[in-house]
Structures are given as structure tokens and as C-alpha cells.
Amino acid sequence: MDKDNKEPQEQPPQEINQKAEEYKDMLQRLQADFENYKKRVEKEIKDAKDASKIEVLRKFLPVLDSFEQAMKTLTKQPTIESLQKENESLRKGFELVYKQIKTAFDSEGVRAITDKHFDPYKHEVLIQEESDSQQGTILQEYQKGYKRGDAIVRHSKVKISSGKVKQDANPAKDNLPNA
Fold first, then answer.
1. 77 and 128 co-located in one domain
2. Residue span of the structural domain in which 64 resides
3. Backbone dihedral region of 156: left (phi > 0), alpha (psi from -120 to 50 degrees) or beta?
């Protein structure tokens, strides 16, 4: 007999069943490990999001404290003198709160959009009007926009120029008498 013509030996059914059970068991363990991995990653992502939200909220706690302190200073039975003092206190309080909010935004890298020319990625046009300014020039900002790096937090709401006012080519035409 030739050595190359050997027929493969069949394994007994018991060995085949044992191997199949081993593979099945291995597959089930891998599947369980993968499910546990997915759950762990989802939890880590949720925890990271929660931690970042808490960090941002902590930055606004001094602002909340300032508002609470300002509310305590308001008198229940105002007089002209007390209203004048309250007005000054409130003005200073609002300035303080504004600075605290600005500091919180600055620490997060949030900056105001300051472009003077319309950019559709940064601005929302509410009104277009003819003017002596170049087309696309921002004439008025109705609401400030903010960005963090390249990401837009809120678009600026603006009025832009649609370009120069077009003059009629023949102004004398309007002065002709009706015939």
C-alpha cells in the first residue's frame, strides 16, 4: 500500500461530542466576556459624562450662591432710601455674577463669536438689509454666539448687509410729467 493514499481515521462519536461541547463552552464564555465588556464600557462612558457634568455644575455653584445672597438683601418693605441702596447692591451683585459666569465659561474654553463678516457655520441671519456696507457684513448682533474650540455652542443671531443700495440708472425717468 502507498503511504500517500491513507484514508483519514474517523474519530469516535464520543470524542466528537466532547470537542463540540468544549467549543460550545468556549464560545459561551467568550460571548459572556464580550457582554460584560460592553456593559463595563457603557458604564465607564456614563460615569465620565456624569463626572464632566458635575465638574461644570461645580463651576456654577458660586453663581448660585451669589444669587441667593442677593435675594437675602432685598427688603420686604422698601423705602426710597432702601431702594437706592438695593439698586446699587443689585448692580454690584449682577456685575459679580456676570464675572463668575464669564470665568466659568472661560475655564471651559467657551469664547464669544466675534466675526464681523457672516459665516453660515457661526451665524444665524434674522434680517438682511441693504446698506453701504459690503454684502455679508454683520450690521447688528441680536444674540451673542459662543464656541468652544471649533464646536459651536450657540450661533450668533445677526442682521447682515445685502450689499449697497442699488441706484436707478435713470433718475430723471421719475420726474417725467404724466402724458
1. no
2. 12-108
3. beta
